[in-house]
Amino acid sequence: MSQENKGEQSQRKDQSQQKPRRRYYSRNRYYNKRRSSNRPDQQKVSFKKTSVVVPLLNEEESLSPLHIEIKKAFTKLTCDYEIIFVDDGSTDKSLDTIKRLAKENNKIRFISFKKNYGKSAALQLGFKSAKGDAIITMDADLQDDPAEIPNLLAKLDEGWDLVSGWKKTRHDPFIKKHTSKLFNYVTRVFSGIKIHDFNCGLKAYRGEIVKRINVYGELHRYVPVLANWEGFSVTEIPVKHHARRYGKTKFGISRFFKGFVDLMTVVFTTRYVKRPMHLFGLIGTFSFAFGILVNLYLSYEWFMGVPLKNRPLLFLGILLIIVGVQFFAVGLLGELIAHNFQDDNEYNVKERN
């Protein structure tokens, strides 16, 4: 065989070996281009996965339309998602509806309580089960709009740790609307956090927040306060609010009074649990000082010849001094307990070198 034929043969061999490689790369470029241009309207977020935690009680009629709206919201986002329904001891067919939806959508998970433990317990278990690096909470009654999820995640992407919804235009009964305004005002004054709606069910969290805070009792109303105390940044955005379509509201007048009691709990546990002397010592000092002033005044009158028998003010002064000493003693005992149970794990460290 001549040298020219050998050269042509080797050239064809080289070309045949190179062809599949060129075709392989061009096919990859085609599929990548097709995949990237598949949904140009999708909103990019930095979160890989978002967990939607939905606590519920007797909301069987709302669950199917809520599921549809949540799925629709995530078609506009680039991140993966999961939905965690937490059934807080429903007595209707809510659990059956959730099981049916879970068969249709493998992104649905659920937890069902044997009895009603309250919204805080439902949220706490939902937080523990969440696998996303961003968490959305919302009520199941369709008053919270799932279409707001992209807006909440976008605000979270700006660097905030917690984004709370603000129901600027509310569609609630008169009593619920105005008691909520009073509740939010008092909470804003006591906590120092300048947001308008602490109790909105529609919120977005970074994953690390739900691992730091412990929600129990009725403290779900004060999650922004608890997060702020741990050093996380809190903000809000206006969200759409709808009138209830199905079922009855779970709001009762007793919840209004419980809310203020819980506010005192939150103020104490966030501000004074590690420095109880600052609270009890301050109250004790004022009570003791006022009692001393009352008794000094009565002593002056006694020196001026005014008899002190049958003077209720004398008993008030003595009582104030005793109460002041007791408050001061409680503060000292609290300081001893806080000192002995001090733990480095309680500090929320931002960076470490």
Write the layout of secondary structure elements.
Layout: H1 3-36, E1 49-56, H2 60-74, E2 80-87, H3 94-104, E3 108-112, H4 119-129, E4 134-137, H5 149-157, E5 162-166, H6 174-191, E6 203-206, H7 207-212, H8 223-229, E7 234-238, H9 253-272, H10 277-303, H11 312-340
Parallel strand pairs: 1-2, 1-4, 2-3, 5-7
Antiparallel strand pairs: 4-6, 5-6
Helix pairs in contact: 2-3, 6-9, 10-11
**Cross-sheet strand order for the largest sheet:** 3-2-1-4-6-5-7
The 3D shape can be described as elongated
In this structure, how is the largest beta sheet organized? 7 strands, mixed
Query: CATH homologous superfamily of the largest domain - what is it?
Result: Spore Coat Polysaccharide Biosynthesis Protein SpsA, Chain A
- Please indicate the percent range of residues in DSSP E strands (runs of 2 or more): 5-15%
Give the beta-strand count.
Answer: 7
The CA-CA distance between the termini, in Å, is 72 Å
* Cα-atom radius of gyration: 31 Å
Number of domains: 2
SSE order in H/E notation?
Answer: HEHEHEHEHEHEHHEHHH
Average pLDDT, to the nearest integer? 81
CATH class categorisation of the largest domain: Alpha Beta
- Unreliably modeled segments: 16-38
